[in-house]
Amino acid sequence: MRDLAESDIPAGFNPGGEGVGINTLCDPLRGIAYDTSHSQWFSNKNVQITVGVVRNTSLAPLRFDEASCRGQDVLAVSVWPSASLAPGQSAEIYVAYESRGTARRTRTSLLSTTR
Fold first, then answer.
1. What domain of life does the native source organism fall in (predicted)?
2. pTM of the entire structure?
C-alpha cells in the first residue's frame, strides 16, 4: 500500500483492467462520499487492489473508518494521506482483496475518441 501512496506500482502487480469499485467493497458512511468517477485497479495472480477516492461531504471533521471495507475477500485497507478528513477534504483509499477471477483489460471506445 505504501508503494501506491508514493505513486509507485507495487512489485508483482500489473496496472489496468477492471475491478470491484470502492462503493461495492466499502459500506456507506454518513458524511463520506465515494468518488466512483476516479478508480484504478492493480492485480496479480491472487490479489487485486482497488484505488479510489473518499470525500468528507459533511460540515464537520470526520474519520474514515477502514473497518467499513470488510468482507470475506478483503485483505487490507489503507487511506492516504489521512483517514481524518476536514469538511470537503478527500483522500485516496486502497483496498486489497483476493482475486475473484481473471482481471479483464479495458479499452477506449473508438467512437468516444472521435467526439
1. Bacteria
2. 0.82
